[in-house]
Design goal:
Chain A is of the alpha+beta class. Chain A has four helices and six strands. A six-stranded mixed beta sheet of chain A has the order 2-1-6-5-4-3, with helices on both faces. The chains are: A alpha+beta (201), B alpha+beta (443). At the A-B interface, helix 1, strand 2 and helix 4 of A face strand 13, helix 9, helix 12, strand 19 and helix 14 of B.
Chain lengths: 201, 443
C-alpha cells in the first residue's frame, strides 16, 4: 500500500512482514538453535543439492556478486543477525540487522553507489563452513532448514580478522531452483561490540 | 610521577586546546587518555545506565566510569547501587557476567560474599582474622556520588561535583523533550543494544555526535541510494544544512544539541523515514486503529526524537536511541546504541520503533566509524602536522548568544567541538578529588 501522507510507494512490498511472519521467524529460530538430534529423513541427492547451493551462496558473497546473490532471495525473505544468543524475538529486542527483501536491495544498492566508505576499500572475505545439517520443514511445501558452523576471514585495508558463528537457513524450491527464505547469522560474539560488518555476512 | 611533573602536564594539556584548533595529542597520547579517565570521566558526572536495564530487584549489569569497571545492582528496596567490580580481599573481579539476576555476589577466588549493596557478609574461615581486619571497612568500593535524572543514572568519584541537575544545566530542557517524545520517564524501556567497537579515540565519536557538516559526504551512499530508489527522504535536509531550519546549540558544561525537529517534523517525520521492514503493515495498523486526526501522532511514536543531544562526555541521544561511549584505550572505543521501547504504546508501534532505530546503525554508522578510524590513522601517522581544525563558523560571526544561556550556531558550525573542548580544558587543568567509600551501606 502507499503512504497515506504522500502516496509514496516502496518496492518491493514489505506487506508480508507482519505479526504472523514474526511468529514464524521466532519458531524457525527456535528450531534452528535447538540442541536436538534431528530426523535425517532426506534423500542423499537432495542433501547434496542443498550443500552445493549453500557453497554457491557463500562463494557469491565472497565474490561480491551481489546481483547474482540477490536473485536467489525469495520475495518473502529475511536476513537476520540477532544481537543476542539465543536470538530474542525481534519484536522486543533490537537486532544487529534484520532485513526484508526490500532493505536487502537497499543495502546492495548502497554498497554499489561507490560512496559507501566503510567498504572503500572493499573487504575481501573467505568463508569456510562445516557441520552442515539439513532437515525438512514441517510444511507441505518443498522446504528445508539447514545450519552450519562458519569461520569468515576478512581482509580489509591491511588488516585481517576472523568472524565465527553459525548460519541457519530456510530454503525453498521455486521453479526448480532454491530460494533463500531466511538466512540467520549467529555470531558467537553478537552481544559484544562488533567491528565493521558493512559487507554481507 | 612527581607533583611538579604532574603540574607541568596539566599546564601542557591546557595548551593543547586553542579556541579554533586542538592538538593531535588529545587523540593519540596515552598519557592524555589516562588523565582524561581521571579528570573527564571519574572526576565528572558520567552516564552509567538507564534504570530500565535493571528494572527488578536482583537485576544487575556491568558498566563503566571511563575505564573503571563497576557493576550496578537493584537491591530489594529498589535502590540502584553502583559498585566497583573488585573484591576487597585480593582484587578479583566479582561480577563476571555482563548482566543477570542475583541478590548476592560471591567472589569465585576465596568465596567472600557481598549483598546487592556491596556489603560484605561472608568471609570463609573468619576466625583466621584479627581485630585490625575487623576494624576496617571491607565492603565493595562505591563512587562518591550516584544520582538519577528521570531514570538516567549518573555517577562520579568526585565528592565536590555539583548536583547532577546543575551539571546537566540547560541541557535538561532537551533531555525532557526527548523523554516526552518517548512517552515520559515511566514508560521508557531499553530493549537491547547494537554494540560496536571503533579503532579511534573516544572523542572522534563524540566530535561527530554534534557534527552537522559531514552528513552529505560521509553518508553520501545512503543519500544517493535513498534518492535513486525512493526519490529522496531521510536526512536530505542536511544537503544545504546552513540554509535549513536546523540549529546547533552550545549548552552548559560541554553539552550540545543539533535540533533537527524544525525540518524533521515540518511535514511528516514518518514520511521521511527510509522504508523499514513491515512499513506497510504498520501503516495499515495505524490507519485502521486510529482516527484520521490521531494518525500523525501514531506515526510520530515510531520515529526518532529529531535531536542529536550530546551530554558530555559519554551520553548521546540519537533518534530514539541512548548511545553510550565506553573508552577502552587511547585509540579504541566501544559504542553502544541502546534501543528503546515504550510501555504506553501497542506492540506494533514498539516493533516499528525497533525497525526504525536499526536503520541508521545498519546503513549509516559504519561509514562514520570508518571515517573516525581513518582520522585516527591520519593524525597518528603524521605527527609533525600537529593541529586539528575546529574553526568552522568561528569567524563568520554567525554564532550568537540566545535565550537560557545557550549559544546558537549554524548546523554545520564546529561550535559543538569548541564548546566541549572549553569544558575539557576546564576539567583537565584542575586536579579533581577522586573518592570511593568502602563503608557499609545502610538500608
Amino acid at each position: 500500500m502507499s503512504n497515506p501522507a504522500t502516496e509514496k510507494t516502496f518496492h518491493p512490498s514489505s506487506a508480508y512482514f507482519d505479526d504472523d511472519y514474526y511468529d514464524w521467524l521466532v519458531s524457525v529460530s527456535d528450531d534452528l538453535s535447538a540442541a536436538v538430534r534431528r530426523n535425517a529423513e532426506i534423500g542423499v541427492k537432495g542433501s547434496q543439492d542443498i550443500s552445493d547451493f549453500l557453497s554457491l551462496e557463500a562463494r557469491l558473497l565472497d565474490q561480491k556478486a551481489l546481483g547474482e546473490w540477490s536473485s536467489f532471495l525469495d520475495a518473502r525473505c529475511a536476513y537476520w543477525i540477532p544481537s543476542d544468543t539465543p536470538a530474542s524475538d525481534p519484536r522486543t529486542q533490537v537486532t544487529l540487522e534484520i532485513h526484508d527483501h526490500r532493505r536487502l536491495l537497499d543495502r546492495i544498492a548502497r554498497l554499489e553507489t561507490g560512496y559507501a566508505y566503510s567498504q572503500y576499500p572493499a573487504s575481501r572475505t573467505s568463508r569456510v563452513f562445516s557441520g552442515l545439517e539439513i532437515w525438512q520443514s514441517d510444511q507441505d511445501v518443498p522446504e528445508w532448514r539447514a545450519r552450519y558452523n562458519f569461520i569468515l576471514s576478512e581482509f580489509r585495508n591491511g588488516y585481517q580478522r576472523n568472524l565465527a558463528g553459525w548460519n541457519g537457513f530456510v530454503l525453498r524450491l521455486v521453479d526448480g531452483g532454491f530460494r533463500i527464505v531466511l538466512k540467520q547469522v549467529n555470531l558467537i560474539d553478537c552481544d559484544r561490540p562488533q567491528g565493521n560488518n558493512s559487507f554481507f555476512l | 610521577m612527581t607533583v611538579t611533573e604532574a603540574e607541568t602536564s596539566i599546564q601542557e594539556w591546557g595548551d593543547l586546546v586553542e579556541n579554533d584548533r586542538v592538538h593531535r595529542k588529545l587523540y593519540t597520547d596515552s598519557q592524555v587518555f589516562a588523565a582524561e579517565m581521571d579528570h573527564i570521566f571519574a572526576g565528572n558526572w558520567v552516564f552509567v545506565l538507564h534504570e530500565s536495564e535493571i528494572a527488578e530487584p536482583g537485576d544487575y549489569r556491568q558498566a563503566w566510569i571511563g575505564t573503571r569497571e563497576v557493576f550496578v545492582t537493584r537491591d530489594n528496596d529498589g535502590q540502584v547501587n553502583v559498585l566497583f567490580n573488585r573484591c576487597s580481599h585480593r582484587g578479583a573481579v566479582i561480577c563476571r557476567e555482563f548482566r543477570g539476576k542475583s541478590s548476592s555476589f560471591t567472589c569465585p577466588y576465596h568465596g567472600w560474599r557481598y549483598d546487592a549493596r556491596g556489603n560484605l557478609f561472608g568471609v570463609p574461615g573468619k576466625n583466621a582474622y584479627g581485630p585490625t581486619f575487623k576494624s576496617r571497612n571491607m565492603h565493595l568500593a562505591k563512587p562518591a556520588k550516584v544520582e538519577s535524572y528521570k531514570g538516567f543514572v549518573f555517577s562520579t568519584l568526585n565528592p565536590d561535583a555539583k548536583p547532577l541537575t546543575e551539571h546537566l544545566g540547560n541541557a535538561r530542557a532537551f533531555i525532557d523533550a526527548w523523554i516526552e517524545h518517548n512517552g515520559g520517564e515511566e514508560n521508557i524501556t531499553v530493549s537491547g543494544a547494537q554494540r560496536f567497537q571503533v579503532n579511534a579515540n573516544w572523542k572522534m565519536i563524540y566530535d561527530n555526535a554534534g557534527d552537522g557538516y559531514h552528513v552529505p559526504f560521509s553518508h553520501q551512499s545512503l543519500l544517493v541510494m535513498t534518492k535513486e530508489r525512493y526519490g529522496g527522504g531521510d536526512m536530505e535536509y542536511f544537503a544545504d544544512a546552513d540554509s535549513s531550519q536546523m540549529y546547533l546549540y552550545a549548552l552548559d558544561n560541554g553539552h550540545t544539541v543539533i535540533d533537527q525537529r524544525p525540518d524533521m517534523f515540518a511535514k511528516s517525520a514518518w514520511d521521511q523515514q527510509r522504508p523499514q521492514p513491515g512499513r506497510e503493515v504498520f501503516e495499515e495498523h495505524i490507519s485502521s486503529s486510529l482516527d484520521a486526526s490521531e494518525q500523525q501522532q501514531g506515526f510520530d511514536k515510531a520515529v526518532g526524537a529529531g535531536m542529536n543531544l550530546s551530554i558530555f562526555p559519554n551520553l548521546l541521544f540519537i533518534g530514539n536511541q541512548i548511545q553510550v561511549l565506553q573508552p577502552i584505550n587511547v585509540s579504541r572505543t566501544a559504542v553502544y546504541f541502546h534501543a528503546t521501547q515504550r510501555a504506553d504504546v501497542d506492540a506494533q508501534t514498539n516493533t516499528m520503533r525497533l525497525r526504525t532505530q536499526e536503520d541508521f546503525p545498519i546503513l549509516g554508522e559504519m561509514d562514520d566509524a570508518d571515517n573516525f578510524e581513518e582520522c585516527q590513522r591520519g593524525i597518528s601517522n603524521a605527527p609533525e602536522d600537529e593541529w586539528i581544525d575546529v574553526s568552522r563558523h568561528y569567524e563568520t560571526g554567525k554564532d550568537a548568544d540566545v535565550e537560557n544561556g545557550m549559544r546558537m550556531g549554524p548546523v554545520t558550525s564546529e561550535i559543538h567541538m569548541r564548546n566541549y573542548y572549553s569544558q575539557w580544558k576546564r576539567l583537565m587543568t584542575v586536579q579533581p578529588k577522586l573518592e570511593v567509600s568502602k563503608e557499609r551501606v545502610k538500608k
